[in-house]
Specification:
Blueprint lengths: L1 E6 L8 E9 L2 E10 L1 H9 L4 E4 L13 H8 L10 H17 L2 E4 L2 H8 L4 H8 L10 H17 L4 E5 L2 E5 L34
Parallel strand pairs: 1-4, 4-5
Antiparallel strand pairs: 1-2, 2-3, 6-7
Helix pairs in contact: 1-3, 4-6, 5-6
């Protein structure tokens, strides 16, 4: 199985972070993490994933600025943006379009909240606690967010993600993996400052 993570930008003119974890017989491994441009490149790279966790709301509130699931996250101490904001509406529309083309199980997540729920202090510690082998991590915060999202997708495939549910949606976060009191925002750790040699991009599937 393969678990994908996506931190999409609201506009295809801006790069989006993406990552893939291979759950092979030798144990989970971060296959690649990269910044991608345009919907076609994202779909091509993430095609073949069994589940993709997306750092974006995948629905809009029926009224008002927040969904009930957003309010539940806020009650838990997490900070999320209202999906009904104009810029967020563009992000939601693009995210729904991309996951619709992928045909994989689509999971809504919030990497900052997922890192906090894991108790880990950074992305490298999260990967280690989750048992995911990896090389040097990318410097891009968007790519790091995608790595966190991929870990959440892996946990969801294994039935051990923390699911925040409400009548209007659900958001998957990471299970508690570290003993710390909470994680820092992705991109604020020493691991995020390593150079990233650039993973091989997945080849498009044969037509």
């Amino acid at each position: 199985m393969r678990a994908g993570g996506l931190d999409p930008s609201a506009s295809p003119r801006r790069p989006s972070g993406a990552a893939m974890i291979d759950l092979g017989r030798g144990g989970p491994r971060l296959e690649w993490a990269a910044l991608l441009s345009g919907d076609d490149e994202i779909v091509s790279a993430l095609r073949g994933a069994d589940a993709v966790a997306v750092d974006s709301p995948l629905s809009l509130p029926s009224s008002g600025a927040l969904r009930e699931v957003d309010r539940e996250l806020i009650r838990m101490g997490h900070r999320v943006l209202p999906p009904a904001w104009r810029g967020m509406r563009e992000l939601v529309a693009r995210s729904i379009s991309i996951v619709g083309r992928l045909g994989a199980r689509a999971i809504e997540t919030h990497p900052r909240s997922a890192l906090a729920s894991s108790g880990c202090r950074g992305v490298g510690e999260l990967l280690g606690a989750a048992g995911v082998a990896h090389g040097p991590l990318p410097a891009s915060r968007d790519a790091l967010d995608a790595v966190v999202a991929a870990v959440v997708a892996m946990e969801a495939l294994e039935g051990r993600s923390l699911v925040v549910r409400a009548p209007d949606g659900e958001v998957h976060l990471s299970a508690r993996l570290c003993r710390g009191s909470g994680g820092r925002p992705p991109g604020r750790t020493s691991s995020s400052r390593r150079s990233w040699p650039g993973p091989p991009r997945p080849s498009p599937p044969p037509s």
